[in-house]
Amino acid sequence: MPKVHPNAVAPEPAATTTTSRAAEEEPPPALLTVWRKSLLFNCHGFTVFDAKGNLAFRVDCYASARRRAEVVLMDVAGKPLLTVRRKRLSLTDHWVIYDGDGTARPLLSVRRHVSLRSSSKTLAHVTPLGSAAASAAEYVVEGSYGRRACAVRDARGDAVAEVRRKESVGDDVFRLVADPRLGAPLATGLVIALDEMFGGGRGSARSLLRRTWSA
Asked: Of 144, 148, 134, 130, which is closest to residue 186 (Cα–Cα)?
């Protein structure tokens, strides 16, 4: 009897095979581990690892949270990938995510949700900007960033990014799941904006998490 390869698949009708192939070719979500700490001495920031434990992104900020007007997300070599910049003269906490070093086009607007209802699950509204604005709807961030349990959802309610707790390691290390539709860099950029809004350090009444970085 001929040996059957363990990955062999029985023939299927053409339509089903096409659907199955499309599902197989769709890339899986990126699984990241975010550490709210810079690897540089006397520096604030983030260190982000991929699913294999390799360094994926980094943020190194010398300015304290009170003086910080922008945060730059870099790759392993220090190349700017995204710039998350505070929007001045805004009635609410408002950050804009730019491509590259901040001189390029804006990609997303992240505005803190304001509601008189303390029971509201909505944290922020994310609006695509520039060329992406015409073809993409607004995202909504729901849940609790301080409890490390929140999701960025599209108009259909599907999660394009999720922040999840990582057990037994404290609140400064957590998981980030990034759907390919959003991508790992933008999902990390949204985490930076959420941390600026809800990570404490500015005396906000809705600060949900005590900062552990030294200023």
From this structure: 130
Coil, strand or helix at 130 = helix
Whole-prediction pTM: 0.78
Half-sphere exposure of 67 (CA within 13 A, CB side): 6
Q: Which of 201, 185, 215 is nearest to 72 (CA)?
A: 185
Residue 113: both structure tokens together: 């949700």
Helix (H, G, I), strand (E, B) or coil at 187: helix
Task: Outline where DSSP puts E strands in the chain.
Answer: 30-35, 44-49, 55-61, 70-74, 80-86, 94-99, 106-112, 122-128, 139-144, 149-153, 159-165, 173-178
Per-residue pLDDT of 17-38, as tens digits, reads: 444 554 567 789 999 999 999 9
- Structural domains in the chain, CATH included, are 30-199 (2.40.160.200)
